[in-house]
Design a protein that fits this description.
- By secondary structure, the protein is an all-alpha fold.
- The protein is 77% helix and 0% strand.
- Helix 2 packs antiparallel against helix 8, helix 4 crosses helix 7 and helix 5 runs antiparallel to helix 6.
- The two termini are 20 Å apart.
Length: 302
């Protein structure tokens, strides 16, 4: 594989994005101590919208200077549909994640969320895609890792409520990724991201007023966490992903982004003082191996 300077730069950009996403689990955990999940999600989503609309304006301004006939919103009707459907999925996944992360460690949250990497190709079965033997093995390895991480050593072989929510979050993120994969080839990536976050912000705001009663003091207490997740995690890291994935081998890109789960565990240990037992660390290792394995393409027999 010809690994040139551009590929190295793009890989480093994706690793930086993964670092931001991983450490965002700490911010989410801290923020959950001040505000409810829908309030946190609404605040971070509106911040992400503000960041992304500036990015959209800058990008489209340059494009229209080069060609004044180019419409501002590319493929507007499809953008609306894609934004609504992807936004609903993102809202559901992010809400489940925020609910679950308040009752478990950032390491568990990171690794359970990252299971979407295995679930995406498994769900592809329903769309006529055969997963292959390798993916079946990865799924079994991830289940073994899940057992060691969440169940081994416990008196009862049941997941906690927070762990169930994080598994649901992983499944919902898998659906969201498939929806983005469906719409993104025909749309501008940053515009789709803005539409997606706008839909998420509207939905989470509605749920916030229905189910929660946030106060200004609570929001002020979570302000740093909200700012980190809204601007850096949702805005900057997504932009790094867009730039980093261009002209980069997809296997390398996937492996770089999978480091999010490792960074979440390290951040929980360094910043929050959270620790994992040897058995739980073994579970993390197995789940990470499954996540990486799921991204390695199988050899096609001629």
């Amino acid at each position: 594989m010809n690994f040139d300077k551009k590929q190295l730069r793009n890989t480093l950009l994706l690793l930086l994005g993964a670092l931001i996403w991983g450490t965002a689990f700490v911010a989410q955990s801290v923020g959950s101590g001040y505000v409810g999940p829908y309030t946190f999600l609404a605040a971070r989503s509106w911040l992400a919208c503000a960041f992304l609309i500036v990015l959209v304006l800058l990008r489209r301004g340059k494009a229209r200077k080069a060609d004044p006939g180019v419409p501002f919103w590319i493929n507007g009707r499809m953008l609306l549909r894609g934004g609504v459907f992807c936004g609903i999925a993102l809202f559901a996944a992010s809400a489940a994640q925020q609910i679950g992360i308040g009752t478990t460690s950032t390491a568990k949250a990171g690794f359970l969320t990252a299971l979407y990497v295995v679930l995406v190709p498994l769900l592809g079965v329903f769309f006529g895609r055969r997963p292959g033997v390798k993916l079946g093995i990865c799924a079994c390895i991830s289940l073994a890792g899940l057992y060691l991480l969440c169940l081994a050593g416990h008196d009862t072989l049941t997941l906690t409520g927070g762990e169930w929510m994080l598994l649901l979050c992983s499944l919902l993120f898998a659906f969201q990724i498939m929806l983005v994969d469906h719409y993104s080839p025909r749309l501008d990536g940053v515009q789709l991201s803005f539409a997606e976050f706008f839909a998420t912000a509207v939905l989470s705001t509605i749920f916030m007023f229905v189910f929660e009663t946030p106060t200004l003091a609570q929001i002020q207490g979570a302000a740093v966490s909200i700012a980190y997740c809204g601007i850096l995690s949702s805005g900057v890291a997504y932009t790094l992903q867009i730039v980093g994935q261009k002209e980069l081998d997809p296997t390398i890109a996937s492996m770089a982004m999978c480091m999010e789960s490792v960074f979440s565990a390290l951040a929980g240990w360094l910043i929050l003082g959270q620790t994992l037992s040897g058995v739980e660390l073994a579970g993390c290792a197995l789940m990470f191996a499954a996540i990486i394995g799921a991204q390695i393409p199988e050899k096609v027999r001629s």
